[in-house]
Design a protein that fits this description.
single chain, about 425 residues, alpha+beta, Rossmann fold, Coagulation Factor XIII, Chain A, domain 1, 2 domains, 6-stranded mixed sheet, 20 strands, about 30% strand
């Protein structure tokens, strides 16, 4: 399939007038008198999106993400620049946008289908699909103004995917509603992706962006800060949100530059012969309150005691954290959590292990090191990246003490017979902890 630009945005700027008095607003609206002060929401945006691309747009609140989408869909006018869209567009923007609150769900559906020039004879079939997908039942016959925010999101998404557009635009609206329906929407979006539809996906959920998108655009203060590979852009954005403008962005570059693509890695069979090595934690990005810090760490084969980046499912490995206690008085010992997580090259978590999940109780206050021994699970061949963590609280609600980001690599061989193990998770019997 030949990739062509389906959306082109060139030198796009959007300004909103700022009024000092009600009379000034009145004069502007009726007499078109100029206004001296403006709020520039978008500044010289240049973006090209090809057919079949799934593009994520991320950024802080107020950076112009929703404004950009509204201009692309034609809901808002631009101040200057050019926007060219080839193909039909369906969008799920702000909740309720495009719906008349005084009309029923069915009446709004009919109105929307008329806008897409759907023949009247086909309307009942479309209504049946939307009713089944949205799962809001008889409420379709009630006015939209009686709907909850979740029901509006359900109806909006069902209508958007029903018209089978060339371009689907989804703003943060999917964050409203229950988890089951969100998963249903993601599955439908993946169907669109498989059909080479173009999708623009705006979300604050970086996990969803990493797992779903092919490319990510980071908007910052109304400008395109970064446009590129999913892992690179989301990692830099994460560090920016932690630290703001600092050398961390440059440090993130160095970390990303050292990563290996899991599809092109050449595994060194001699890695198992490496000598023992404690990795200095100071050269990696660390966040948290730092009452306890990780000074160094090791990841090694539990049997041979040798360090290696080469992992085999079904074998035991050990993660050792060498700790330094800074201020134990500010920490609740019984609520401490130690652990690590492993993610794929897109940043999606593959598995994680921590003391809370496996119900480990601390009974020794004078610790300097923790070892976590675990059976390596059955995961697909490739290259993965691990992070180490210390927290306080519970799995659902905790405070980060130290989080050492992307600090060790794991390479899984591609010639292993996975049917021998059949392990899809790490059971409690396959994990042990040692504190000293």
């Amino acid at each position: 399939m030949i990739k062509k630009n389906i959306i082109e945005v060139k030198d796009l700027t959007k300004k909103y007038p700022l009024f000092d008095t009600p009379f000034q607003k009145f004069s502007y609206a009726l007499l078109n008198r100029p206004v001296r002060n403006h709020k520039e929401v978008l500044k010289d945006i240049n973006i090209c999106i090809k057919n079949g691309e799934v593009v994520g747009i991320i950024g802080e609140n107020g950076t112009g993400k929703s404004t950009l989408l509204k201009i692309i869909t034609g809901v808002l006018d631009k101040t200057s620049g050019k926007v060219r869209v080839r193909g039909s567009v369906a969008s799920l923007l702000e909740l309720g946008i495009g719906f008349n609150p005084d009309l029923t769900g069915v009446e709004n559906i009919r109105y929307t289908l008329n806008l897409y020039n759907v023949p009247e004879s086909d309307v009942p079939v479309h209504i049946d699909f939307i009713k089944e997908f949205s799962e809001i039942g008889d409420y379709l016959n009630q006015p939209i103004k009686t709907y909850s925010s979740g029901m509006i999101a359900r109806l909006g998404f069902a209508v958007a995917v029903n018209v089978d557009p060339d371009i689907l635009i989804v703003d943060e609206a999917l964050s409203v509603g229950d988890l089951k329906f969100q998963q249903k929407c993601i599955r439908k979006m993946k169907e669109f992706k498989d059909k080479n539809k173009t999708i623009i996906f705006v979300s604050h959920d970086l996990g969803a962006v990493r797992s779903f998108c092919d490319r990510v655009i980071w908007l910052h203060e109304g400008r395109v800060r970064l446009d590129g590979k999913v892992k690179e852009v989301t990692t830099k954005f994460s560090h920016f949100m932690y630290f703001g403008e600092s050398k961390v962005v440059a440090e993130a570059d160095s970390l990303l530059g050292n990563e290996v693509d899991g599809n092109s890695v050449e595994i060194n069979k001699d890695l198992a012969d490496e000598k023992e090595l404690n990795h200095d934690a100071g050269k990696y990005i660390s966040t948290g309150s730092s009452e306890i810090i990780i000074e160094s760490f090791r990841v090694f084969d539990s049997l041979s005691k040798m360090d290696s980046s080469f992992f085999t499912p079904g074998k035991y490995y050990t993660v050792r954290l060498n700790l330094k206690v800074i201020d134990l008085d500010k920490v609740s010992i019984e609520d401490l959590i130690f652990g690590f997580s492993v993610a794929n090259k897109n940043g999606t978590s593959v598995f994680s292990i921590n003391t809370f999940v496996y119900d480990y109780k601390f009974d020794n206050l004078d610790f300097s090191c923790i070892e976590i021994k675990f059976l390596f699970p059955n995961i697909a061949p490739g290259t993965y990246i691990g992070s180490l963590a210390i927290a306080e609280g519970t799995q659902a609600s905790h405070r980060s003490i130290t989080w050492l980001h992307d600090c060790f690599k794991l390479m899984v061989q591609d010639d292993f017979n996975y049917s021998q193990i059949g392990l899809t998770y790490v059971s409690p019997s396959d994990v042990s902890f040692h504190i000293q």
